[in-house]
Structure formats: structure tokens, C-alpha cells
Write a structure and sequence with these properties.
Keywords: 2Fe-2S, Iron, Iron-sulfur, Metal-binding. Pfam families: Fer2. It is a single chain. The chain has helices spanning 23-29, 65-71; strands spanning 2-6, 12-16, 49-52, 81-83, 96-99. By secondary structure, it is an alpha+beta fold. The chain has a single domain, classed as Beta-grasp domain (Ubiquitin-like (UB roll)), CATH 3.10.20.30. A five-stranded mixed β-sheet has the order 2-1-5-3-4. A hairpin with a 5-residue loop joins strand 1 (2-6) and strand 2. The longest helix is centred in the N-terminal third of the chain and has 7 residues, at 23-29. The mean pLDDT is 96. The structure holds FE2/S2 (inorganic) cluster. Residues 24, 37-39, 41, 43-48, 83, 85 line the site of FE2/S2 (inorganic) cluster.
Length: 101
């Protein structure tokens, strides 16, 4: 599946992602700046904060209570905020747009 990472200036970096990988791992693997994934996906750092905009959000499982708790710590929290380490890539997410705060 293709994942489009979108930066603050609206430039897009598209990567060929591996199914089963998370949006965080895929970003780190491809050297996408702004998604650090310091805790390795253990849901303790929130350095993988992203915005999932538009219809894509509806295709992704809603955040767990733990994810919501951690999201409350991030800067620039929006209703479309998610932790990229909690979102697994699958075929239905082909073309997903992930905005980096
Ligand atoms: Fe640390 Fe997502 S990588 S919370």
C-alpha cells in the first residue's frame, strides 16, 4: 500500500509501505522527518503524533483509551490527531494521507 506523508508546507513524500507495519515504523524506515517513534511503538513517547485527515480517519479503528490519554500530552492536538504507532497498514489504507504536525 502507498502511504503519503504530508509536511507542513504541503509537500508530499509517498512511500511503498509494508502491510502489517505501522504508520510510525514505515515513516522511520523511510526516513520521514517529524515522526521519531522514540519509544519504538510502546505508546509512551507521543513522538509519532500525526493527523489523519478526511475519509481515511473513518477507515481506521478508533483510538484506545490509552492512546487518547497520551494524545492529551501532545502539542497542537486536533480532533484528527492519532499516534502513528497505533495504526497498522493494510490494503484498505492504500493511499492514506498522513499529515505531520
Ligand atoms: Fe512512541 Fe508512538 S512511537 S508513542
Amino acid at each position: 500500500p502507498t502511504v503519503h506523508y504530508i509536511f507542513g508546507d504541503d509537500t508530499v513524500h509517498s512511500v511503498d509501505a509494508v502491510e502489517g507495519d505501522t504508520l510510525m515504523h514505515s515513516a522511520v524506515r523511510n526516513g520521514i522527518p517529524g515522526i521519531e517513534g522514540e519509544c519504538g511503538g510502546e505508546m509512551s513517547c507521543a513522538t509519532c503524533h500525526v493527523y489523519i485527515e478526511g475519509e481515511w480517519r473513518k477507515r481506521i479503528q478508533a483510538p484506545s483509551d490509552d492512546e487518547n490519554d497520551l494524545l492529551e500530552m501532545v502539542d497542537e492536538l486536533r480532533p484528527v490527531s492519532r499516534l502513528a504507532c497505533q495504526i497498522k497498514i493494510n490494503a484498505s489504507l492504500d493511499g492514506v494521507q498522513v499529515r505531520i504536525p
